Amino acid sequence: MFIEKLMVAYMDHKANHIYYLDRSEQVILLDAIEPGGLPNLEFLDPNEPERFIEIPKVMNVESFSWMVEFESHHQNSELLHALNEDEPFERFTEKVKKLDLLEEWQTFQKDKVKSRIENWLTEKELIEMQKQPD
């Protein structure tokens, strides 16, 4: 499904990956940053500056807020402690696995990402793409 592809792009944490949505073709394009640190951007058309929209990436603060919200639903001291450790993302994932909450956490996170992408599509006036099949 198209929205799931947008979700994958949104959650891609690789610093050298930039995703664009082609409004005309309604496809997602990946532009890998060149070794010199500059985007490739060969596909961008200067005659159609509105055609390509950069797909945002999840920010650490947003991911962290989801972990805090998930912990607040469970009121679990181990999860809370993981949030306050060094490398909280890794410690939280370890605790979620240990507590057999991984599937629930992934569903929770997926719902948050889907909501964020749907809001982004609405903000960019691309609502029709929410219903687009693969």
What does this structure look like?
The protein is mainly α. It is 49% helix and 11% strand. It is built from five helices and three strands. A hairpin with a 4-residue loop joins strand 1 and strand 2. It is elongated. The N and C termini lie close together (4 Å).
The largest sheet has its strands arranged as: 2-1-3
C-alpha-based Rg, rounded: 18 Å
Low-confidence stretches: none
Number of helices: 5
Order of SSEs, N→C?
HEEEHHHH
Brief rundown of the structure:
The chain has 134 residues and is mainly alpha-helical. The chain is 49% helix and 11% strand.
Please describe the topology of this protein:
Elements: H1 2-11, E1 17-22, E2 27-32, E3 52-54, H2 60-74, H3 77-83, H4 88-98, H5 102-123
Question: Which features would summarize this protein structure in a list?
Answer:
mainly alpha; three-stranded antiparallel sheet; 49% helix
